[in-house]
Amino acid sequence: MDFKPLLRESREVRVKAVPLVPRLLDKVKQQAELLIKSIEDAEKAADALTIQTVETDGKLELREFGRVSTGVVAGSGDVYQYTVKGLPPGQEASIANMGGRNKPSWRILRTQNGVQGEWTGAHETATHALAALQAELRHASLSLEREPDYRIERDRHIVVLVSQRATQRGTGPKPAMGARLAFKTVHDVLDFVRAGEAEGFVFAGKEFLK
């Protein structure tokens, strides 16, 4: 059987087809809903697989904390927030979607010894945020196993070079161990710490910057 676009048919055929348009639109809607559901199911399966991998490896684990309500049924929609299990003693973390369903932005909130930080990051999925948190903890663990290269003073504006490696950083004249770097703002210190950690340097006294 040959099919032609309806708009190319005669006026008589188009008129007879008008009553069928609502049924056609309903069918298109049903198929679209089925497609969306299958995509959502696939995403949930991928998340579950990733989370299970994290649990099996003995690392961090996402625990559902809250869901969006749809209609009159509470907690029947998408998960919008998780708590994180498996953190070191004294630490807590939440991962929440601060974006929307169509443009997710999963962020991390960390609490250490009862002191709450700020929401950070902007990840595509909760499991991506979990992986970023795991990487932060791993980096912090490795840093604890090494002697520091810099020490941040309590006033938060002075950074002291405390390793030979730190004195050899960069080009130009090399400062001596114990040299003190003065910064105008805490933000400048934070930028210096981020750049240094990206190069593998270890900083002591970062708790003063919180």
Produce the secondary structure layout:
Layout lengths: L10 H7 L3 H36 L4 E7 L11 E7 L5 E7 L8 E7 L2 E2 L3 E4 L2 H19 L5 E3 L5 E4 L2 H4 L12 E3 L3 H13 L4 E2 L6
Parallel strand pairs: 7-10
Antiparallel strand pairs: 1-2, 2-3, 3-4, 4-5, 4-6, 7-8, 8-9
Based on DSSP secondary structure assignment, what is the total number of beta strands?
Answer: 10
- Share of residues in strands: 15-25%
Instruction: Please give the alpha-carbon distance between the first and last residues.
Output: 72 Å
Q: In one word, what is the shape? A: elongated
Features:
210 residues; alpha+beta; 3 domains; six-stranded antiparallel sheet; four-stranded mixed sheet; 38% helix; elongated
